[in-house]
Specification:
The protein has 197 residues and is an alpha/beta fold. It has helices spanning 10-22, 61-73, 81-84, 91-101, 119-133, 157-160, 172-186, and strands at residues 27-29, 33-38, 41-46, 51-55, 77-79, 104-109, 145-149, 166-167, 193-195. A hairpin with a 2-residue loop joins strand 2 and strand 3 (41-46). It is elongated. It starts with 9 loop residues before the first helix and ends with a strand. 22% of the residues are buried.
Length: 197
């Protein structure tokens, strides 16, 4: 017996969200905001914290998680794959989507990440492509890719020739504040959407 699967359409997803709201539930869309019932229908409360994707190699999970938590304490909404990916989720597409919708991409460089082939390099290339696709009308101060060094290590020439990096050593707190300031500078407000019943 073969199992048939069908992709959910936008109408299907809208029906699921509407049914959940009618059942009295709040619906959170990761990184974007929350739908909830209101006296006049439904309203969307946008996420106002600036969002940031944290890219790292598996060997650097401890400092990457520490950075994620530090940026959250600074008022940022951090996306770390180990915390956000769900079991069974199409993780390559979920990671690309998270990078696309993030306000900033923090690349954690270490002696391990600069010499390792794999997902970190792929995420970094995808983020650089996303940065190139941003409208030219955006502020010249807008930052998307933010390189950080977790330790003394080289930063790839393609990055260091064009982007200023931040050292998180020897003063971790100072480095985190600099990263958070860059992320917040690029944050954009989103309007509140109201949906009728």
């Amino acid at each position: 017996m073969t199992r048939m699967t069908r992709r959910l359409t936008h109408q299907d997803l809208a029906a699921i969200v509407r049914q959940s709201l009618e059942d009295g539930q709040t619906v959170e869309i990761d990184g974007l905001g929350t739908f909830q019932a209101s006296p006049h229908g439904y309203e969307f409360l946008p996420e106002t914290r600036p969002s940031v994707f944290i890219a790292y190699v598996a060997e650097d999970i401890v400092p990457a998680r520490r950075l994620c938590e530090a940026l959250q304490a600074e008022g940022c909404l951090s996306w770390l794959d180990k915390d956000k990916l769900l079991p069974g989720q199409n993780w390559p597409r979920a990671i690309e989507r998270a990078i696309e919708v993030s306000g900033a991409f923090v690349a954690c460089f270490s002696r391990r990440s600069v010499s390792k082939y794999g997902q970190f390099q792929s995420e970094l290339r995808f983020a650089l492509d996303c940065a190139r696709l941003r409208p030219l009308g955006e502020s010249m101060d807008a930052t998307f890719v933010i390189p950080v060094r977790l330790e003394e290590c080289p930063v790839p020439k393609r990055i260091s020739d064009h982007l200023q990096y931040v050292d998180l050593f020897p003063d971790w707190d100072k480095g985190v504040r600099r990263v958070a300031r860059a992320i917040k500078r690029t944050a954009r407000g989103r309007p509140v959407l109201k949906l009728g019943r």
